[in-house]
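User: Predict the structure for this protein chain, please.
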Amino acid sequence: MAAVAEKVAEAAARERETAEQLGRGGSFSEIQMDPERLAAIWVAKHAEWRRVRDLMAQAGWDAYEPERDTEGSTWAREREERRDGALAARAAFEARRREEADELRAELWLSAAPSRLIRAVADRAGLMPAQVLAQLAERVVVGDDGTVSVPPFTPSR
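Assistant: Here is the predicted structure, written as structure tokens:
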């Protein structure tokens, strides 16, 4: 119970500090977090520690028993689900970024003769010239001696 009372006092102090700092427009060093979000977090932590303290006092517990705290257990489970979802979203974002890092986007200027040839091939295949060039690039073969070639192929959709 003393440890919970200590956490209530700490959360109350941090709530006051962040509210005062927010009111003064001060800077926050705590993980360079948005000041309003940090203040809201400490308000929520303070409220949760008070709820735990009150529950323990009402139930007569000497120590906190999470398995008997249905509200806290539900909140913890929901928080864990949100955390897992956020971690999965972050992992997917990082995977997309890694894949995009391997992509190449280029603007290509061709002289008139090759440009006409690419346009004609694209027209026959019902493609855009950029799609024909992308298919050419996908089929590039680099020889042991460093020569670059493209085996014959028919562009397709």
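The chain is about 65% helix and 5% strand.
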